[in-house]
Design goal:
Layout lengths: L5 H13 L2 H8 L3 H15 L4 E4 L2 E4 L1 H28 L5 E6 L1 H9 L1 H6 L5 E6 L13 E4 L8 E16 H6 L8 H4 L3 E2 L8 H9 L7 E2 L3 H9 L5 E4 H4 L5 E3 L8 E9 L6 H16 L1 H4 L7 H11 L1
Helix pairs in contact: 1-2, 1-3, 1-4, 2-3
């Protein structure tokens, strides 16, 4: 088979399990066109069509159904070798890679000296990403996220609770009187996130439940949302641990239990035995415990929030 690439079979395997090119791209860290091109290359080499593209997603052909059991054997074998690698190398893990989004990355950067003190002898690699991780590939050891894993081979340890609240810039709040009242949800400009942003779907639902039916701007990162709010583009739900630190911002609501989310570190259960992994998880727990009040929004109370609490108490 000329120019055959074993990696193309892995792309086929992931695309078949995700039943979409975009889903496969997110897992593999590739663009949708790249996934499509590699699958076409594999089809050309095999001399068979593997998928039918339908509005409901990828549909297996007869050729794909025959190939799938073989790629599963390859996947299981590759994962077994990957998990065995530290023992084969005769040394313990020295580099721990953590996948996390920009909010969690900022939290760790604000406490990086504390984290490093607890990780003597371990090289830490932080990788900002907004996608789920394929832990079986061992390209990433740990991931910090709010949602629990749905795969039996993954385990999670709770780190803490992250709270969100409504914020606006001081200038915007000064010029938009509705911002300090319940009319903010229908009378103010709002900054939201795309509906496919996987980590924070609850934020969009919360806004809709409170009457925000449209947004004037959508961004795909919390840091971009903060920048837009600081620039006076409107109001947004922001993480208290970051927004309360910004003197340009005013918190306009208290801590709603619906906007409080448990933070977890997720990993494959097979690497729990690694001393470096256990030490890194303990260090993350220590950082989250250290900033627990900030994460929960209990540290900085603005004058605007006092006004809101007084209104509710009347």
């Amino acid at each position: 088979m000329a120019d055959f690439d074993w990696n193309d079979l892995r792309i086929f395997d992931v695309a078949a399990r995700m039943r979409s090119l975009s889903g496969a791209g997110r897992v593999l860290g590739m663009s949708q066109p790249q996934v499509s091109r590699r699958l076409r290359q594999l089809e050309d080499n095999l001399g068979a069509r593997l998928f039918d593209r339908t509005p409901q997603g990828l549909k297996y052909t007869k050729a794909a159904e025959r190939l799938l059991p073989l790629t599963k054997i390859m996947r299981d074998g590759a994962n077994a070798v990957s998990r065995l690698h530290p023992a084969l190398a005769g040394e313990t893990l020295g580099v721990v890679r953590i996948s996390l989004d920009e909010v969690r990355s900022k939290v760790l950067m604000l406490n990086i000296l504390r984290l490093k003190r607890n990780l003597q002898g371990i090289e830490l690699e932080l990788i900002e990403a907004q996608t789920e991780v394929d832990h079986s590939s061992r390209n990433i050891e740990l991931q910090i996220r709010c949602c629990l894993p749905e795969i039996d081979s993954l385990v999670a340890r709770r780190l803490g609770t992250m709270s969100f609240a409504v914020y606006g810039s001081r200038d915007y709040v000064a010029t938009c009187s509705a911002a300090r009242t319940e009319k903010r949800y229908t009378s103010c400009d709002w900054i939201g996130m795309p509906p496919d942003r996987i980590w924070y779907p609850e934020l969009g639902r919360w806004l809709i439940e409170h009457g925000v039916m449209s947004t004037s701007l959508r961004v795909n990162t919390m840091t971009a949302a903060m920048d837009a709010v600081c620039a006076g583009a409107g109001l947004a739900l922001l993480p208290c641990v970051l927004a309360d630190r910004d003197q340009h911002l005013v918190r306009l609501t208290g801590c709603d239990p619906q906007l409080q989310f448990a933070e977890h570190v997720v990993l494959h259960r097979d690497i729990l035995r690694e001393p470096a992994i256990r030490k890194t998880i303990d260090a993350l727990v220590d950082v989250y415990r250290h900033v627990g009040n900030e994460l929960e929004g209990n540290v900085h109370i603005t004058a605007a929030e006092h006004d809101v609490e007084e209104q509710y108490s009347r």
